[in-house]
Amino acid sequence: MTPLHRREFLRQAGLSAAVLPFIVGLPSLALAAPARPRQRLIVVFSPNGTIPPAFWPDTSGRDFALKEILSPLAPYRDRMLTLQGLSNKVRGDGDGHMRGMSCLLTGIELLPGNIMGGSGVPAGWASGISIDQELKNFFQSQALTRTRFGSLEFGVGVQDRADPWTRMSYAGSGQPVAPISDPYQMHDKLYGQMKDRASLRSVLDPLKSEFAKVRTLISAEDRRMLEEHETLVRQLEREISDPASHTLRVTPPDFERGVADQNDNVPRLSRMQIDLLVNSFANDMARVATLQYTKSVGSARMNWLDITDGHHGLSHEPDTDEAAQKKLIKINTWFAGEVRYLADRLAATPEPGGGGSMLDHTLIVWTNELGKGNSHTLDNIPFVLLGGGFGFDMGRALKFEKVPHNRLHLALAHAVGHRIETFGKRDLCTGGPLVLT
Q: pLDDT tens for residues 235-276?
């Protein structure tokens, strides 16, 4: 029932508004607001721009055909939105790659800094929170959507360095959030506490009897101190016995050991990270995640595709270099295949405690820091939305005219009930949330 209907009910029943909090949950009165279905967001990043003629559909609306790069996503065509014409209009310090990466999810300028970019203008970190962390904070502020981690930041082949080219997620101004590229480290973060509980239980089990023995041997004052220790033990026991704190809906994946975090293992590392991501969502450890492939100016060598050139170097080749164009199309098609694997895993996993699959309740946003690598343009940034749960009208190719990407971030926020008026740079939010329903 809407607030207006509630007020009408109170008026008709001759009740004051003061009684509403006490009766709103009574089933027979049907005054409780309908529960919002579970919603999740995954932002997938791949670097160095795309090849527009092989990426964007030629027609808009529902009657569109997928080009070569997006062809792996064909099974999800009716559950997809392509958003052509969104632009990163944030200006200021830093080069295109720096602003492309660190302003991608923040929509706000970089702070002054001493990290020199290709433009000859140094810059620092982004000066505001990213949309993934904004939604994480919104979910964590409510009991019904609060999870253990809130958000999880996965990386694949992200180098062990920190600068505006390597970070897209920000907890606030000057607060980059580092992705975890090692799946074994992520596995320990997610499930290591279960091992800790088992070890702790083995230590606590004999303590009660030991305390009883010691109590007969010490003074009254010492017994008071011992009682404080016993209280701590009881608290630990309650935490261990709390089913909600350690019961998993889905068993964690069992990985082969020894897959090194190095270039040629990127395909295996990608699948391991995706499996962990889906498993963490199935166990409701987070409602928001990012999956970052390499970084802006990423120079991975896709040897598994028989491409020995560095990705970033290839992206600088002119459009007339047909060999380079074919390689870049192949690289971006591979990234689309990894998004396909993520969608497949979500679609194959039943929604815990609900109907349908996890993909029905999860929106994937696949994006990039540049619209085109060799021009470093921040116009026509690739944005592909796939999945469900946000109420968008899917199965369409949409074309806009240099619309600030801040408006997409507003649409994501409003779709989960977070009714913010602006996000990132206020001047780039004119027109409000992008209309996708």
A: 655 555 554 455 788 999 989 899 999 999 999 999 999 999
Summarize the confidence of residues 151-173 as an average pLDDT. 94
Three-state SS annotation for the chain? CCHHHHHHHHHHHCCCHHHHHHHCCCHHHCCCCCCCCCCEEEEEECCCCECHHHCCCCCCECCCCCCCCCHHHHHHHHHEEEEEEEECCCCCCCCHHHHHHHCCCCCCCECCCCECCCCCCCECCECCCCHHHHHHHHHHCCCCCCCCCEEEEEEECCCCCCCCCCCCCEEECCEECCCECCHHHHHHHHHHHHHHHHHHHHHHCCHHHHHHHHHCCCCHHHHHHHHHHHHHHHHHHHHHHCHHHHCCCCCCCCCCCCCCCCHHHHHHHHHHHHHHHHHHHHCCCEEEEEEEECCCCCCCECHHHCCCCEHHHHHCCCCCCHHHHHHHHHHHHHHHHHHHHHHHHHHCCECCCCCCEHHHHEEEEEECCCCECCCCECCCCCEEEEECCCCCCCCEEEEEEEEECHHHHHHHHHHCCCCCCCCCCHHHHCCCCCCCC
Per the CB < 8 A criterion, the answer to whether 113 and 125 are in contact is yes
Mean pLDDT of 60-64: 97
pLDDT of residue 36: 74
Same domain for 377 and 288 = yes
**What pLDDT score was predicted for residue 13?**
67
Percentage of the chain lying above the pLDDT 90 cut: 73
Same domain, 157 and 212: no
pLDDT digits (tens, 9 = 90+) for 314-340: 999 999 999 999 999 999 999 999 999
Is 204 found in the same domain as 71?
Answer: no
Same domain, 18 and 127: no
Domain containing residue 231: 183-260
Q: What is the pLDDT of residues 370-394, one digit of tens each?
A: 999 999 999 999 999 999 999 999 9
Same domain, 305 and 193: no
Domain final position from 260, 276, 301: 260
Which pTM was predicted? Answer: 0.83
